[in-house]
């Protein structure tokens, strides 16, 4: 074991953060480039783009629980998590290199660009889904619950978020194609190299601290029971898979009604869980409440990732003097090239996401972590989600102006900073430490199942004829998340 790990120095926390940074940089590259390249280069429509993005949730549903269970039970190459981080990094780098070559792949295979886009996106997301949970679980494995673990996840987000800011800066300054090739190098290096210097414990921190751990076997039935709050999202996911992947969209006229029915069912199940928890609170019920709350958060966030490019393209660009656009001036200053009308939407979006990720990088370590120690992680998280709600509502009423768009993204960045850092510190203290990989996989269902709702969201926005409806829907989703978080039990705070 390196001395920096024994002493838990800031250098070690930074090293420990790099695998998660690789995942975050890959995701930032996807957000900046995937919708842009599919819309501008291959002229896919919003619902087709949303379907391509479904590859990620589909691979997550399959891969993450399996990888979580396997990483809990395996020991290979000196660790539980290391082999999966390395494999995911190799796969991700390869698929990033394939992303700009989809046209060439189409020519050689004879497949449609839509089919090739789904295939490349699916394999690219396998990197995220194979690597994400082990990259986060390894932090819980080598840190103690409480302040040390909160610091681990906040430092993770500081490093990962900083590189995320860098990804959008590169996108605006040098273009998405350059970003994609650079991302392939970053993902490969950050996945493979750091884990060679981190020693995973065979005996977990919970055992070292003599915490009682229930000796139970992981089972599919156990996981299915825990996922009860997400059954409504799962039902819609099944409908989307059957309709679009098996029936060619023949049931699309039922899509909106089915989505509303599934959301209502989800809310009713959530109310039942809240009532049970008021009668007798348990860690299982608290975990289920967190699942539901995080699902509504991610329903909004994923919709923003996929469809905000179309909002910028349709609501902002037509009335904009592109020569005076701040994003284009920013881009021209660093690249020396004059931005075209086609690239302006991508520049505006990337600069907006740069501001979002800047908040995500700075706030966890500088503000959220110290506040969590003083007033508790759950209270801090609620406040961050409330800010995100306000940010999305502001974007709905005023986001069509470029500066207002950036301001709204900055406000939303407060919630984003918490949703990718503190929530893991909250969640990991509610579950069995010996099954951390499994529970990370289960928790990821609160991300991937809501993401399966995005074709339904895209249909509603397209039917409305106004892409600003996107931010109204996201606001409602984040408001539902905030109400759910209000029922989550506060963590105990030590008096300083």
Task: Summarize the helix and strand pattern as letters.
Answer: HHHHHHHHHHHHHHHHHHHHHH
Shape: globular
| Main beta-sheet strand count, sense and barrel state | none
CATH homologous superfamily caption: MFS general substrate transporter like domains
Q: Report the top-level CATH class.
A: Mainly Alpha
What share of residues is helical?
Answer: over 70%
The chain-level mean pLDDT equals 84
Low-confidence stretches: 206-218
At the third CATH level, what is the topology name?
Growth Hormone, Chain: A
- CATH architecture group name: Up-down Bundle
* Tally of contiguous helical segments: 22
Strand content: under 5%
Number of strands: 0
Structural class: mainly alpha
Question: How many domains is the backbone divided into?
Answer: 1
Gist of the model:
This protein is mainly alpha-helical and 496 residues long. Helix content is 78%, strand content 0%.
Description:
It is a single chain. This protein has 22 helices and no strands. The longest helix is centred in the C-terminal third of the chain and has 35 residues, at 341-375. The two termini are 32 Å apart. The radius of gyration is 21 Å and the shape is globular. The chain has helices spanning 3-6, 10-41, 46-53, 55-73, 82-98, 102-109, 113-142, 147-174, 176-192, 205-208, 220-226, 231-246, 255-279, 283-316, 326-335, 341-375, 377-398, 402-419, 422-428, 436-451, 454-464, 469-485. By secondary structure, it is mostly helical. The model is unreliable at 206-218 (pLDDT under 50). Helix 2 (10-41) packs parallel to helix 5 (82-98). The protein has one domain: Growth Hormone, Chain: A.
